[in-house]
Amino acid sequence: MNWLLPPGASTFATEIDWLYYVILWVTGIAFVVTEVALVWFLIRYRARPGVRATHYHGNVKAEVIWTSVTAAAVLVLGLMSAGGWDRIKGRNSVPGDAIPIIVHAKQFEWQITYPGPDLQLGTADDFTVRNQLHVPVDRAVNATLTAEDAIHSFFVPAWRIKQDAVPGMRIQVWFQPTQTGQFEIACAELCGLGHYRMKGAVTVHSQEEFDRWNVNRGQLALGQ
Amino acid sequence: MPTIKSSVAGHASATGEAHTHEMSFLRKYIFSTDHKIIGIQFLIMSLVFLLAGGVLAMVIRWQLGFPGQAMPGGGVLPDTMAPDGIVLPEFYNALVTMHGTFMVFFAIMPLLVGVFGNYLIPLKIGAPDMAFPRINMASFWIAVPAGIMMIAGFVVEGGHAAAGWTSYAPLSERADLSGVSMGQILWCISLIILGLSSILGSFNYITTVINLRAPGMHWFRLPLSIWALFVTAILVLLAMPILSGAIIMLLFDQTIGTHFFGPAQGGQPLLWQHLFWFFGHPEVYILILPAMGFASDIIANGSRKPVFGYASMVFAILAIAVLGWGVWGHHMFMSGMNPTLGTSFMISTMLIAVPSAIKVFNWLGTIWLGSVRFHTPMLHAVAFVSMFIIGGLSGIFMASTPVDIYIHDTYFIVAHLHYVLFGGSLFAIFAAITYWYPKMFGRMMNPFWAKAHFVLTFVAYNFVFFPMHQLGLQGHMRRIFDPNEYEFLQHLQGLNTFISISAFVLFAAQFIFAINFIASWFVGEKAPDNPWDDNGLEWTVPSPPPHGNFATIPRVYRGPYEYSSPLVQEDFLPQNRELPPQPAGSAAHT
Amino acid sequence: MKRILIASAVLSLVACGGGDEGGGAVDTTAQGGGAAPAAAGGGSVTGSVTFTGTPPANPTIDMSEEAVCQGKYASTPADPEVMVTSGKLANVVVHVKSGLPAGQTFPVPSAPAVIDQEGCLYHPRALAVMVGQTLQIKNSDAVLHNIKAVPTKNRGFNISQPRAGMTTERSFTTEEITVPLECNVHGWMHANIAVLSHPFFATTGADGSFTISGLPAGTYEIEARHEKLGTKTMSVTVPATGSVPANFAFTATTS
Q1: Residue-number span of the structural domain to which A199 is assigned
Q2: Domain check: are A188 and A160 in the same one?
Q3: B135 to each of B16, B35, B550, how far by Cα in Å?
Q4: Of C3, C14, C166, the CB nearest to B83
């Protein structure tokens, strides 16, 4: 049983993975304590001839203590999580210089619209690519998620991002990759019979490589 | 509170029948108004659906363990499901949908509420039957066509519902997207009818517990199983109508041209999710509270000791039931709803861990200083506690919204839900069946085979579901026909195959239970009135109890957990046993 | 009793209620009986469909996400929207639009109309079938295709064929021109099926030619339909035996 997460490749991964390991430790300790106590009690207090159980109804002080400890622990975990949630999903959390893209989810493909070299959506050099996400490393990207038909979910495991794409809604999800390489988009909301292969190929380029690709595609868009 | 007023002959007026002449077989066993018969009817129907849900799971696990390979025996399936015995993607989606639907609505819920709510409530509170016996009969017989309709979806054109047991719109309402039309409609109608069955049952249980308790059966002398069933019945009464309403809206979108959930005409897909989960979260507490109640009764009995902190256990049940209404959004963290709601639902979700933790500590405290008898029901009840600990702790990961970004809609969630529903509810159901079987059928189940079933099930179960945590942590999504399409998941095929083989073993082990259950009914050792030396009122009457339960309505003097009391020599002290007056300052209990 | 009545009322409601694809049509499958034989005898219409001018360039398809299909092409494949070879236009469905005696039924061809998925494209792109005739859909690619039919008058379907060699059969109950076919796994795949209530139709191949035979003598309106370039009609008078010509010419602007 491997409790380790696979390598992360975005700024969010650092924060989310850290929270995960904190919760793993806390719940791991709770798990060991309670399960060991359970097994220990079953062995220690098994029925033996001539030994009677103790007629005991409870201990309010003990209950107050373990209830308070539990409540404090979960509240702390909650407050620790709240900050991260705000930084990742908060509507005001998107960096101002994030590259805007549109990710339009449709049975069973991802149609990604890029702003082109002017980095502005809605201009003549925009272009749309199917199932391929190209981004530069160490830059924030802000995706507007839309959906054509059913609910889909934009999931890039390596970046620890996931966001449902809902027909009729425009939902922001932003991310900043920290490593170049190839990754995958997976659809994480059942969307029909092709759901299992609604995948996309992610390429994180160096800034120079991305610029070359971007200019090239933008010129093609203008030329057409 | 008013307790029962009528005398012995009351049971005749309660049922409205004369019992001096013999009833026909049909009246006595088929269209019966006796809560015990109705409970057994629910038991048979639910166990059939539990088996069917298990069969569906085996097909799912075949595809995941041996993707794209012909299933042994798959040749019997039509080409619309599995041509050449190889499962089609759309059939796979229907399988995961119907596995969840069968298990939640037609197996676990009726096993907990329809079976044991019916069977135990009148007996354990000292009543001759339910407050409304004919409505009780209707509640079962309305569930039957619901079940038939739900099975019929497999044979209609387009196949069965395939949008998940959660049936998210717009996929569930658009046949052009899902390829499913009639199947989804049947799913809707079946659940509306089943909801009616549940609602009829629930107000019967509530009224009975409030009004028909025997003299001396004060609220704080009720067994925790009854407290749990009572509170669950209130949840059912409040939650099922919400589901019915949502499903009616979905049905109208599918059939008569409304657009509640269709965005092109101004509807909102998220509205379905809010409605479904507002029902759905109390529903999962409906699926666990009775299990917790049975575990408390059986652990106290097995430990020969009072439940540790009875009053806290009651308040924890109430807290879970109340707080359970405020957490539904945690199923929707990634849905696109306002992120601020994510934070508020996270806090409420973290808080609801507390009453569940209280219950776990108190079960541990019950065993502590006890004298533990390892009868089969105790084994299952202890397994319930240990598996529920895992299920509950795994919930904390998903309660943390940032971590949920990663694990939502992965096998981590599948692991969690199976640890609470199987590791939790189903082990408690096995505990309850093995415990009350002697009372229901007048026979003991074979103890050797019952224990063999327990050991095999417990081991195989953990081999199936524990590794699913790892699948989820590696990013393995849910409801995925073939994960090998993704490079990042290909290395997990070995683990999926291991899980599938363990699942086949787990399924096979259930036949030990099925054979034991059926054979013991006919040739099992005759059961005494009180094989477990339990304090409850049901153990003061014969196994099985006669129609009307009690020759005379009992009088209750104490709570149900007075095991190893210093007042008597035996290590148990039934609730209705009168003791000579105790001197002042002795260990007398309310 | 009441429960059974309610249950059967609900069940009959369910059985009669339909999906939302439009009313289920009455079965119009004909089996002979008063029908003019479509085999031997009768007149015929023969001709060719041409394209004048420079045909528009077909858009290229980026198939890099589906290596199995991309590997079947020597160069970047193009979407066969307008296929012109030496001035001849392919994928045109030519059919009798009017002129057949009212109420006459015709035997349904027993041979299926076949549409194949090869190289992640439908072959043929345009197809005509008769009401009740079997449409056989084949998958010659070792990848998942889903076949989604989105008719307005017929019952639609959305089914999968995950493996090469799989065949599925469907048929239509109502005349509809045309029923679009699409694959959602490969969003560039499109085909159109014309569903006709008579067997007097043909589809042009690369050489642009067609023959509609077995027609009783009479005057008919013949329509030629191209998915992108529109429709053209002409009136022909068919003799009792022998052939009469009909040629259609399409240009870049739709009619």
Answers
A1: 99-223
A2: yes
A3: 13, 11, 22
A4: C166
C90, part of any domain:
yes
Q: B403 and A20 in contact by Cβ < 8 A?
A: yes
Beta bridge partners of C129: C195
For residue B27, the 8-state DSSP code is: I
Mutual orientation of helices B224-255 and B116-125 as an angle, nearest 10°? 150
CATH number for the domain harbouring residue A21: 1.10.287.90
DSSP assigned state of B410: B
Contacts with A216 from chain C: Cβ below 8 Å? none
Evaluate the CA torsion angle B349, B350, B351, B355 in order and state its sign: positive
Query: Could you tell me which CATH class the domain B289-549 is placed in?
Result: mainly alpha
Of B86, B138, B179, the CB nearest to C159: B179
Q: What is the pLDDT of residues B45-104, one digit of tens each?
A: 999 999 999 999 999 999 999 999 999 999 999 999 999 999 999 999 999 999 999 999
Q: What are phi and psi of B536, to 5 degrees?
A: -70, 160
Q: Which of B229, B280, B324, B230 is nearest to B417 (CA)?
A: B280
Q: Which two tokens stand for residue A79?
A: 């407050």
The domain covering B30-263 belongs, at the CATH homologous superfamily level, to Cytochrome c oxidase-like, subunit I domain (1.20.210.10)
What are B395's two structure tokens? 């919930």
Residue with tokens 């889909």: A152
Q: Which residues of C touch B89 (CB under 8 A)?
A: 144, 160, 162
Intrachain domains B30-263 and B289-549 with the same fold: yes
**Chain C residues inside the 8 Å CB shell of B142:** 3
- Do strands A141-147 and A99-106 pair parallel, antiparallel, or not at all (unpaired)? parallel
Q: Are residues A127 and A54 in the same domain?
A: no
Per-residue pLDDT tens digits for B13-50 = 444 444 545 788 888 889 999 999 999 999 999 999 99
ipTM greater than cut 0.95: yes
Residue C103 region, left (φ>0) first, then alpha (ψ -120 to 50), else beta? left
Query: Residues 6 or more apart from A136 whose CB is under 8 A from it?
Result: A99, A204, A205, A206, A207, A209, A210, A211
The answer to whether residue C105 is domain-embedded is: yes
- State pTM to two decimals: 0.92
CA distances B311 to B306, B324, B389, B565, Å, are 12, 20, 21, 19
